[in-house]
Amino acid sequence: KELICVKNNLTYLPEIENLTNLQKINVNENKLKSLPESIGYIGSLQTIYCFKNQLKALPNSLQYRTATTDRPLFIMAKSNHIKIKNIQKLIISNKNIILRV
Questions:
Q1: Structure confidence by residue, pLDDT tens digits, 4-15
Q2: Rounded to whole angstroms, how far apart are CA atoms 59 and 48?
Q3: Rg (CA), the chain
Q4: Could you tell me the pTM of the whole model?
Q5: Three-state DSSP class for residue 49
Q6: Confidence check: pLDDT of 73 > 80
Q7: What pLDDT shows up at residue 94?
Q8: CB count in 10 Å sphere of residue 87
Q9: pLDDT tens per residue, range 13-47
Q10: Which end of the chain has fewer CB atoms < 10 Å from its terminal CB, N or C?
Q11: What is the Cα 96 distance to its own chain's centre?
Q12: In angstroms, rounded to a whole number, what is the distance separating the alpha carbons of residues 101 and 93?
């Protein structure tokens, strides 16, 4: 139910759509520039922790979450330039994120 990859110097995550029971992802303190597109298609996913990475955008697939689940998705991140488009039920939990819709 949890994928924990903290402080591993990861530069990418593989596509993870087969992890259908995944509820939490913790990839804090890596070197990720993006998250896999498949992350938005995991209906059971509740929380993504991605502090201290190099993320500049969230996957476009997150905009389709509302079609597959009514559960809100919490994203814990700290960034000055994450772009979010066409998301209706996404809850961002960090006041340091700038939303550009």
A1: 999 999 999 998
A2: 12
A3: 12
A4: 0.73
A5: strand
A6: no
A7: 44
A8: 20
A9: 998 889 989 999 999 999 998 899 998 888 888 88
A10: C
A11: 16
A12: 16
Q: Is 9 left (phi over 0), alpha (psi -120 to 50) or beta?
A: left
SS3 label, residue 100: coil
Mean pLDDT (whole number) for 50-64:
80
- Residue 25 backbone phi and psi in degrees, to 5: -125, 130
How many whole angstroms from its chain centre is CA 68?
Answer: 16
Q: Distance (Å, rounded) from C-alpha 2 to C-alpha 86?
A: 27
Q: Which amino acid is at 26?
A: N
DSSP 34: -
What are the respective helix, strand and coil percentages of the chain, to the nearest 5? 15, 20, 70
Q: Which residue has the higher pLDDT, 50 or 10?
A: 10
Given this model, what pLDDT does residue 99 score? 41
Token readout for 4 is 């924990």
CB 62 within 8 A of CB 36: no
User: What single DSSP character describes residue 97?
Assistant: P
